[in-house]
Amino acid sequence: MNEVFYTEPFSDHRRDQINLATVGGSISFDLRGNACFHFPTAEARNEYLSLKSKEKGCVAK
To answer: What is the pLDDT, as a whole number, of residue 61?
Structure first.
């Protein structure tokens, strides 16, 4: 059985890392040894992306 991985590229921005922890994600490594954000579920990943897009909207104002 194949396991599905929910990841996003690593970000060294503090707010991104706080959002990652807020949704229950963690910092992990991909198969090539690069750091990435790992999420336990698709919903957690979507919530992280939602938080990130809300912040971009606030910065643009």
So the answer is: 45
Q: Helical H runs in 1-61? A: 14-22, 42-60
Query: What are the distances in angstroms from CA 40 to CA 2, 20, 28, 45?
Result: 15, 11, 12, 8
Under 8 Å between Cβ of 27 and 38 = yes
- pTM recorded for the entire structure: 0.83
DSSP state at residue 28: E
Q: Report the distance separating Cα 61 and Cα 2, nearest Å.
A: 43
**Cα separations in angstroms, 24 against 32, 42, 45, 59:** 23, 12, 9, 24
Q: How far apart are CA 27 and CA 35, in angstroms?
A: 7
